[in-house]
Amino acid sequence: MHRREFMKAAATAPLALIQPASTPEAKICLFTDHLADFDYREVATMLRQVGVGGADLTVRPGGLVKPERVVEDLPKAAAVFKENGLSISMITTAIASASDPMARTVLTTAASLGIGYYKLGYYPYENLEEWRSKLESTQQELKKLVDLGHRLGIQAGFHNHSGPFVGGSLWDSWQILQNLDSKWIGFYFDPGQATIEGGNNAWNLGFRRLSEKLKMIAIKDFIWEKDRGQWKTRWVPLGEGMVRWPEFFKILRQVSFEGPISLHIEYDPGGSTKAARFENSLAAGIQDLKFLKQQLREANS
C-alpha cells in the first residue's frame, strides 16, 4: 500500500479511540524504540496516523531522548506530542539505581511534565548460582528508587524480561515486590517475554499472582525457530506468534488496571530508506493496533 493510501486509511483511526479514558483501548500507546532515527515531529505524525493516544517514549542511551539531554529535549518532545493531540503515557529508561547520576534528573523532568509512569532498567544475573544475593541487592536498589519516585510523584514498572535477568522468572517479581510500596512500584507485565520463559501455564499463573500489582503492559509477539541448529526466538507481528492473546485478555478483563498498554514493534518493519522505513513502520503499527483492539473487543464481548 502506498503512503497516500495509508494517510487516507489512518485519517479515521483516531476517531475509534474517542471513548472513556478508563477503557483498555484508550490506554494504548506506541513504544518508540524502533523510531529512534526519526525526530519528534515525525514520530508524533506517525503515532497520530497509527491511531494511538500517546507514546511510550524511550529516554535511555540510544533512545529518542538521550538521558544527558533530558532537561532540554523531553519538554520539547512533550510539546510536539501535545500539538498533535498526543500524550507521553510513560517513558522507558535504563534506570536501575537511585545512585545513577541521571536518575533524579530524568525522573524529575518526567514528573514535572505530568508523566506518571516509567519503566525501570534491568538487573542481570551475573551468576545464576548467586540468585539469592542478587534478589536481595535488587530489592535494596528498588527501595531507594521507590522512595525517589514517591517524592517526585512517578510510578516505576518492573519488567519481566526473558533471559538471565531478575524478573524473567515471574516468581522473582513476586518476591521482590512484596515489601515495596505498591502505589509507587508495580509489575510491568510482558506476555511475550513471559511466554518465552513459561509458555504453557507458568505465564498464566505468574500473571494471576502479580496482577494485583499491575502498573503497565507490553504487547509483542514471537515464535521459536531453529537457526544453525539452535532454537532461538524471533519477534513477529501480533497474531503470528505463540502468545495466547485471547487467554491473556480474558484474564486482564478481570483485573483492576489503570496504567498504559505499550504496543511494541520489536520485529524489523524493513525499508532501505528513511521514507520506506516510515511507511513500513506506519503499516506495522496500523496492523498490530488493529489486532490488539480486536482482541480487546472480543475479550469484553
Please give a structural write-up.
The strands form 2 sheets. Strands 1-2-3-4-5-6-7-10 form an 8-stranded parallel β-barrel, surrounded by 5 helices. Strands 8-9 form a two-stranded antiparallel sheet. A hairpin with a 2-residue loop joins strand 8 and strand 9. It has 10 helices and 10 strands. The chain has one domain: TIM Barrel, CATH 3.20.20.150. The protein is α/β, with parallel strands linked by helices. The two termini are 32 Å apart. 41% of the residues lie in helices and 17% in strands. Helix 3 runs parallel beside helix 4. The N terminus is likely disordered. It is globular.
Low-confidence parts, pLDDT < 50 over ≥5 residues?
1-21
Structural class: alpha/beta
Give the C-alpha Rg. Answer: 19 Å
Q: Averaged pLDDT, please?
A: 91
Count of helix runs: 10
CATH class descriptor name: Alpha Beta
Please provide the ordered H/E string of secondary-structure elements: HEHEHEHEHEHEHHEEEHEH
Residues in helix, %: 40-55%
Brief rundown of the structure:
With 301 residues, the chain is of the alpha/beta class. The protein has helices at residues 3-10, 40-50, 70-83, 103-112, 131-152, 170-177, 191-197, 202-210, 245-252, 274-299, and strands at 28-31, 54-58, 87-92, 117-119, 155-159, 185-189, 214-219, 221-227, 230-236, 261-263.
Furnish the topology, listing elements before pairings.
Blueprint: H1 3-10, E1 28-31, H2 40-50, E2 54-58, H3 70-83, E3 87-92, H4 103-112, E4 117-119, H5 131-152, E5 155-159, H6 170-177, E6 185-189, H7 191-197, H8 202-210, E7 214-219, E8 221-227, E9 230-236, H9 245-252, E10 261-263, H10 274-299
Parallel strand pairs: 1-2, 1-10, 2-3, 3-4, 4-5, 5-6, 6-7, 7-10
Antiparallel strand pairs: 8-9
